[in-house]
């Protein structure tokens, strides 16, 4: 699946930029309504929301779109959208969790059912294949002492109930670190890593559906069919995000 995603051409990349902007708006909604970091619509009281706002602005999301998303999440005049979660069995017995935001759930269900019928998927009980967990990603500045700062960062994270982490070195010498934690301690971990002097900045804080046993080495035909299904679901206006058991 990872290899398939890397094969997207220029048109897909351009389209992906639009999806990124759309997701940034939905991310604002979820960081309030899903209580990912305390549920406050005030970015000064909600570290995850503050990070999501920065990413939305950096992605080029119009100011009006951001304000509308926050109004919906806070229960303002535009309240009425429903957060929906669907369980799907895709090609090759790959499980999918589909998150949607809809002002007409019946329409969303019918549209998703049509997509599944046309792309070899079906509604099925697959949530047991996933675990709900928190993910918090932060950035460290480049420097000769980056390893020492990473060690201190990890200590802070472990004290805040982090369970595991991955690092990635960037071209400019900086480093990103993604921590995993139980769903219930996401707010605690986010707050700890957002404290002054702990890291350069908070990049992400979200609740995810992570596969308990990620599928590997899908055959080409299954991979292509899965990619088509996921793309079709992501193309739907109501879709927020798609999680699959083929994702690590």
SSE inventory with pairings:
Blueprint lengths: L1 H5 L3 H24 L13 H12 L4 H12 L7 E9 L3 E9 L2 H14 L3 E2 L6 E11 L5 H14 L4 E6 L5 E8 L3 H8 L7 E11 L8 H16 L3 E6 L4
**Share in β-strands:** 25-35%
The H/E string reads HHHHEEHEEHEEHEHE
Q: What top-tier CATH class of the largest domain fits best?
A: Alpha Beta
CATH architecture classification name of the largest domain: 2-Layer Sandwich
Largest sheet features: 4 strands, antiparallel
Shape: globular
Number of helices: 8
Question: What is the structural class?
Answer: alpha+beta
What's the total number of strands? 8
For CATH, the homologous superfamily of the largest domain is named as: YebC, transcriptional regulation domain
Give the averaged pLDDT, no decimals.
Answer: 81
Radius of gyration computed on alpha carbons: 19 Å
CATH topology label of the largest domain = Alpha-Beta Plaits
Distance between the first and last residues' Cα: 9 Å
Number of domains: 2
Spans of at least 5 consecutive residues whose pLDDT stays below 50 are: 1-24
The helix content is: 40-55%
Strand order of the largest sheet: 3-1-2-8
Walk me through what this model shows.
InterPro entries: Integrase-like_N, TACO1_YebC-like_2nd/3rd_dom, TACO1_YebC_N, Transcrip_reg_TACO1-like, Transcrip_reg_TACO1-like_dom3, YebC-like. This is YebC-like protein. Belongs to the TACO1 family. This protein is an alpha+beta fold and 248 residues long. It is 42% helix and 25% strand. The strands form 2 sheets. Strands 3-1-2-8 form a 4-stranded antiparallel beta sheet. Strand 5 and strand 6 form a beta hairpin. Helix 2 runs antiparallel to helix 3 and helix 2 runs parallel beside helix 4. The chain starts with a helix and ends with a strand. The N terminus is likely disordered.
């Amino acid at each position: 699946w990872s290899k398939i995603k890397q094969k997207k051409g220029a048109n897909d990349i351009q389209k992906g930029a639009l999806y990124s902007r759309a997701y940034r708006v939905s991310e604002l909604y979820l960081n309030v309504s899903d209580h990912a970091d305390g549920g406050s619509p005030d970015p000064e009281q909600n570290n995850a929301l503050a990070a999501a706002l920065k990413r939305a602005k950096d992605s080029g999301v119009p100011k009006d779109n951001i304000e509308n998303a926050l109004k919906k999440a806070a229960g303002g005049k535009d309240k009425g959208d429903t957060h929906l979660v669907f369980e799907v069995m895709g090609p090759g017995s790959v499980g999918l969790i589909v998150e949607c935001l809809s002002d007409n759930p019946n329409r969303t269900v019918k549209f998703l059912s049509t997509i599944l019928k046309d792309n070899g998927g079906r509604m099925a009980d697959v949530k047991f294949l996933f675990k709900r967990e928190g993910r918090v990603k932060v950035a460290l500045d480049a420097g000769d002492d980056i390893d020492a700062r990473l060690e201190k960062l990890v200590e802070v994270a472990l004290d805040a109930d982090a369970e595991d982490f991955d690092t990635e070195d960037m071209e400019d010498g900086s480093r990103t670190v993604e921590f995993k934690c139980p769903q219930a301690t996401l707010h605690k971990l986010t707050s700890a890593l957002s404290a002054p002097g702990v890291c350069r900045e908070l990049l992400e804080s979200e609740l995810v559906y992570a596969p308990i046993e990620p599928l590997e080495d899908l055959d080409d035909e299954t991979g292509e069919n899965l990619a088509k299904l996921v793309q079709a679901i992501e193309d739907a206006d109501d879709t927020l995000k798609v999680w699959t058991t083929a994702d690590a």
